[in-house]
Amino acid sequence: TSSSTMSQTHNNNETVNVAHVNKRAKRENHDDDDHEKHLIVVKFHQFSEIKYKKDTDKYSPVFERGGARWKLQLRFSKQGAQSGEGSDSPLGYCLGVYLCLDEAPWLLGEEYSVNYAASIPKLDITKTSGESTFRLGKSNGCGWRRVTTMKRVLDRGLDDDILSIHIKFDQLEHICKRWTSSLSFNKERLKMLRTEAHTDITFVVGSSDQQQRIKANTRQLLLGAPAMKSIIDEATTVEEEDGDGKSISFPTIDPDHFRFVLRFIYAD
Known about the structure:
The chain has 268 residues and is an alpha+beta fold. It is built from 5 helices and 16 strands. It folds into 2 domains: 3-47 and 60-70 and 100-176, no CATH class; 184-267, Potassium Channel Kv1.1, Chain A. The relative contact order is 0.14.
């Protein structure tokens, strides 16, 4: 197992640890006591002019941290029946805060592990997230549905009609599980196994009603696990619909476990 760490320095002299981890490596935490916790102040101007409607959203300008583009999402939701549907009145509404990734052309397989805190200093409110993983195409934001009430924000939380929210990253880790070219290549090989493309050997695995016929390609198996040659050599020649092939039986092996092993060999 191997991993490498490098630093990315941004225009504001922020330095964020970046971890490149291969497919067998466990994610490592690169935080330490000397690592500065960076503060971002996100401001929403003319906040009192926002039209409050159920499940409406407002986004902050985009900011960069750790090589990614982020934004804050404010979500307004009703907490009771004090205000009518679609009303502009803040009564009965709660403020939710979420950290989101901005749309970006990420590399395939890229992830960010984040632990952050959001605070509204004027209201002495601080929320701390647990560790969250943002993935390409699968991240809808991490945060809190109800941070405070809109009435409280409007009464005591604004400064010149500006809502300021402080964001502090306690952990910001960039994870590349595998280089893009390798990941794409391995996906194609796993697709071959799944679709039974270019197969020339059949493994009859399991017994009775649990039995499965799993087809594979001997060349791919030998490339990933040369030790399988002794097993393949024991296979018998059988007649298949598309010509002669090889077959070998493993009646005492769990089919799902065997398929998992084949997936590992194909993607190795």
